[in-house]
What does this fold into?
Amino acid sequence: MSELRHQAQRNRHGFTLVELLTVIAIIAVLATLLLTALASAKKKSRQAFCTSNLHQVSLALNMYLDDFPKRPSGFSLLAAARFLPSTNALRCPEDRLGNWGGLTRGEMFATDEAIPYSYLQPLPWTDGAWNYLNSLGSAAGVAACQLHGLGKPNYDFPSIHDFEGLVLRVRRDAAVIRTHVYWDTFVSAASDVAAPPPMAAPTAGASAARTPAAPAYPWKLFVDEPPTNLTDIVEQP
It folds into this structure.
């Protein structure tokens, strides 16, 4: 009789502490798996959105080159000529600064762009560098997004070297490929001209700030293999 009473009292007490902790642990594991899956799906959707943007950029550039004998100096001309459906096509959803391409273009060339954009592009490069890209035909990269890789932007001094890893590159044939770019700590001019170029010393009475003596070309972002004769390409106007 006492055993039945003890059993009834235990049943009225509900879950034991061990059972409750087990249930909580299972719920926590399921929640973690769900959040991981959602984060992965969100990341892939942003990459798909960016891929669509890059595809539109390549199509717009090809249509521009079909109508005009000279390449545009930047994305602003593509938008002004209405070859892009919207300037939103130039914005990556991962761009927290809203103008990553514009903020980092000073590393290569000081060009004037009237609109913000996220993608790195070779449009203002010198004729030598641009002609080399054209020599690659449909495999030439015309825009690249590095914001899906690993890294953290330096809000004070943004640099393309802030990110490495996954890069989405769109080619002249409008195909968007996934590649990986890693910046070497010590880079030789023969392998990557994207390293910070030599700095020109300030003239007398000038500001103490130092400026690049020559443009830099981040070949890794736009081609699979860098050109072999880099000196002629850099020096050619």
Notes: The CA atoms of residues 154 and 162 lie 7 Å apart. Residues 2-235 form one domain. The mean pLDDT is 79.
